[in-house]
Amino acid sequence: MPPARPASAAPVRIALIGLGYWGPNYARVLSELPNAELTAVCDQRADRLSLARQRHGSVATCSTVDELIGRDDVDAIVIATPASTHEALVRAALASGRHVLVEKPMALNAGACQSLCDLAESSGRVLMVGYTFLYNAGVRKMKEVMAPEQFGQPYYLHATRTNLGPIRQDVNAAWDLAPHDIAIFNYLLDDQPLWASAIGTRVLKTNREDIAFATLGFKNDVIGNIHVSWADPNKVREVVAVGSRRRVVFDDLNNVERVRVFERGVSVGEAASDSFGEFKLLVRDGDIISPKVDTSEPLKNQCADFVNAILTGTPAVAGARFGAGVVRTLVAIDASMRSRGAAVEV
Fold first, then answer.
1. Integer Cα distance of 196 and 218 in angstroms
2. What is the model's pLDDT at position 3?
3. C-alpha count within 13 angstroms, C-beta hemisphere, residue 256
4. Which pLDDT does position 320 carry in this prediction?
5. Quick check: 267 and 245 in contact, CB under 8 A?
6. Same fold, 12-131+300-323 and 134-297+327-345
7. How far are the Cα atoms of 213, 242, 288, 325 from residue 239, in angstroms, in the given order?
8. pLDDT tens digit string along 176-224?
């Protein structure tokens, strides 16, 4: 077990497991973050550890998780490794008494997620999942302009996340890309889906789906639709929300107008007495607005939330139970794809 947490005035000492595609970004952010200190980096590859020493001269390096966990200068661990390794690494880190921030998904099945949530709670440790889009200023602005009095009744959401790769070796495109949009939908609606229906295909002739279309059903008949692809030459990162009073679009690739608000909508009025039960449609037509979106780095915001949760006990936005809910939805999507689109309860 590590020593007791230092006084709140001391920085949180954080180790990083995994210095692959995303890990160097974590290393940079953790070394820059107030109230945090990057103390160690763990990776099996000598060249990656050499890179860590080049960029972060004072950081310790090690090639095994056991060596890292045995250190006495680590309060928390960030895990940025392939998805199939997450469950075992999170379990080992929590069992050693460390707080954990793990890249999505937390694990590859719902039972494992439940077990890890229980372990974090019983040990009094923060367990957080890396859904960076919840810390994106554009998504935050989207939620702000979707306040009920402005947005009205939510009708549906639609997300598109396409590109040419990168192709993962351990999960399909739904598990790789859709977690972002499931998390965004759940965050925007303050809810989780009741069921999922999905179709996937393998156009690249691998053993995993590289294209998927998923529909999620929320309460009050709100629908969420997600399209993900590793095989589309057009890179798209877009989320659309349509309500009775507004349509809101988040385009993460548009640096000029990241969020657009269409003050237009249609709702149902009262039925006239002589209309045989036909309801009057109330159409609202207004301006198209591009609200100011502050510039900030989502990964840095996410890591700051992790450190704040450790130091103050304030629940993280992307906490363990939130992450487990996303995995339950992914499991339902997988089951539906195997059943050629049959609806599966989440």
1. 9
2. 45
3. 0
4. 97
5. yes
6. no
7. 14, 10, 17, 20
8. 999 999 999 999 999 999 999 999 999 998 899 999 999 999 999 999 9
The type of residue at 194 is L
What is d(CA 135, CA 300) in angstroms, rounded to the nearest whole number?
Answer: 9
Q: What string of DSSP letters covers 224-256?
A: EEEEEESEEEEEEEEEEEEESS-EEEEETT-SS
Length of the chain: 346
Query: How many C-beta atoms lie closer than 10 Å to residue 269's C-beta?
Result: 9
> Per residue in 133-173, pLDDT tens?
999 999 999 999 999 999 999 999 999 999 998 898 888 99
The CATH architecture assigned to 12-131+300-323 reads 3-Layer(aba) Sandwich (3.40)
Beta carbons within 8 Å of 247's beta carbon, 6+ residues apart: 240, 241, 261, 262, 264, 265
In this predicted structure, what is the pLDDT of residue 267? 78
CATH H superfamily, domain 134-297+327-345: Dihydrodipicolinate Reductase; domain 2 (3.30.360.10)
Domain range list for the chain: 12-131+300-323, 134-297+327-345
For residue 101, how many C-alpha atoms fall within 13 Å in the half-sphere facing its CB? 29
Residue segments in the chain with a per-residue pLDDT below the cut of 50: 1-7
User: In this predicted structure, what is the pLDDT of residue 283?
Assistant: 79
* pTM (two decimals): 0.90
